[in-house]
Design brief:
Layout (H helix, E strand, L loop, with lengths): L69 H23 L2
Length: 94
């Protein structure tokens, strides 16, 4: 899923540094599409990178890059919320 337009892309892994979103043209090999991207962390990354990548939206050469599958992560969080609600309802009735 593209960080900019939110649309799914047909990609093959490993993702090329020059890969672009087929819908909006945004760089896909960028911090904002990385599984380790974490605003507020050191250099906004969960990995222990040595140097700052200033533009999080542009393609980069980071060796730690791992394409984030945000659509399945969203589905997993939705499933977890549904399970929690079901457990709550079973404790206190509908």
């Amino acid at each position: 899923m593209c960080w900019k337009c939110g649309k799914e892309n047909k990609i093959s892994l490993p993702l090329s540094r020059s890969a672009e979103c087929e819908h909006c043209g945004a760089d896909l090999h960028s911090c904002k599409n990385c599984a380790f991207y974490s605003p507020g962390s050191h250099y906004d990354c969960h990995e222990t990178i040595d140097e700052l990548i200033a533009d999080k939206e542009r393609a980069n050469f980071c060796d730690y890059f791992k394409f984030a599958n945000k659509s399945s992560a969203k589905n997993n969080s939705d499933d977890a919320a549904a399970k929690a609600k079901k457990a709550f309802d079973s404790l206190f009735g509908d």
